[in-house]
C-alpha cells in the first residue's frame, strides 16, 4: 500500500519538474487539494520532502549517477523523483529508517512505474548509504566540490568567482542557501503593538522573539500562519527583515506621494503605508493585473487605504508621471539568487544567460522611473539577488549615463544606525553606498542603494 503523504510529495515534485512550477505554490495547491486525507504529521513530511528534494536535487542526482547504469535523462520523471525523495530520506533525514524509505520508494514505483523500474528502484535504494554523500567531498576540483556537496549549479558558483569572491565566501553562501529559513513577521503598528502581538501569538500557540528591526518578530514555529486569527485580522505581515529594510531606508513621510513601481505582492508597499501611518498617497504598479490584486488584498487585510494599484510597465516611459513623486521604491525583478533558501527551484529554472536579459530590464526600469522623481526626491533601487551585474553595476551604469541629471548616491550608514536596533546590517555596507547582504543564518541575500535627485546641473 502506498503511503499517502509520500504520494502527495511525489505528485508535487512531478508537477514542479514538468511544469517548471514554483515549489511553494505547487506544494500549497497539492496540500489543499488533499487536505481531507492528510493530518498535521503528513503535511510536515510532505513539506520536508518537497523542499528537501528541490534544494538538494543536484547532489541527489550525483548519487543516482553513481549507482545507475541508465543515464539520468533516460529515467522517467516519476521514477527519478521516487529515487530522489527516497535517497533524500536515507541521507538527510535521520528519523526515517532506511528500510522505510526503501520500501515506500518501491511501493511508489509499483504504482508509477513498470516491472523493470520496480527492480531498478529497489536495487539502487538498497545500495544507498551516507558514504555516498561523504564521497562527494573527495572531488579534487574545488568549485566542482562546492557544487556537488551544496547542490549549487556550477554557473552560479563561477559567476560569484568571476565577481571576485574567494572560495570560502562562495562555500558559505552555498551552505546558507540550503538552511531552512527563519520566518520573520512585521508588526502592523496601525492595528497593534509588538508587545500586544507577542501576547496574542502566544495565546495562538506561536512563540516569538524580537527581530533585528524594531517592527519585526522572529517565530519559533510558523506553519499555518495564514489560518491564525491574528493574520486574518491584519495584525502582521510575513516578510524577511532585509526586505523590510528597503522601506525604512526610503524613509517615507506622511502626506508624501510615493511610487512603488514593482509592488506585487505588496509587502514593501504596505510597510511604506504603515510607516506613513496611512496618510499620504502610494501608487503601486505591476505589469500584470492579477498581481496588483494581491497588493489590494494585502492592503485590505491590513486596513490600509492610501494605496492605489495600477497596471503599468515600469520600463516604459510615460510623460504624465514626470517629476510627480516625492520618493520612489524600485524593488526590480531579478534572478532571485538571494532567496534560494525560500525558493530553491530558482536554482534549476535560471541560467547564466538570463543575467544579461534581466539586467537590461533592471536598467530600463531605473532609467525610466528616475524621470518620475521630483527634484530633491529620493529613490531606492533594490533586488533579492547577489550578483553585482544586477546590483552595483546597474547603479554605476545609470550614474555614468545620467551624469548631467545630478543624481547622487545617498550614504545610508546614519540611516542604518538609526533604524537597526542591533546594528546588524552595518556589517554589509560597502563604502556607505551599497548594502550588499549575502544570505546568512538571519536573512536572505539582498541589495539596496539609495539615490537622490538634486536637480539639473
CATH topology of the largest domain: Rossmann fold
What is the first-to-last residue Cα distance? 76 Å
From the alpha-carbon coordinates, what is the Rg to the nearest angstrom?
24 Å
This entry's quaternary arrangement is: single chain
Structural class by SSE content: alpha/beta
The number of distinct helices, counting runs of at least 4 residues, comes to: 20
What characterizes the major β-sheet?
Answer: 9 strands, mixed
Q: Which segments are poorly predicted (pLDDT under 50) over 5 or more consecutive residues?
A: none
**Total strand count, please?**
13
CATH class of the largest domain, named Alpha Beta
Helix content: 40-55%
Mean pLDDT: 94
Question: How many domains would you count in the coordinates?
Answer: 3
Tell me what the structure shows.
The protein is an alpha/beta fold and 457 residues long. It has three domains: 4-134, Orthogonal Bundle (N-utilizing Substance Protein B Homolog, Chain A); 139-176, no CATH class; 241-453, Rossmann fold, CATH 3.40.50. 47% of the residues lie in helices and 14% in strands. It contains 20 helices and 13 strands. Strands 5, 6, 7, 8, 9, 10, 11, 12 and 13 form a nine-stranded mixed β-sheet that branches. A four-stranded antiparallel β-sheet has the order 2-3-1-4, with helices on one face. A hairpin with an 8-residue loop joins strand 12 (434-437) and strand 13. It is globular and about 70 Å long. The termini are far apart. The relative contact order is 0.09. The mean pLDDT is 94.
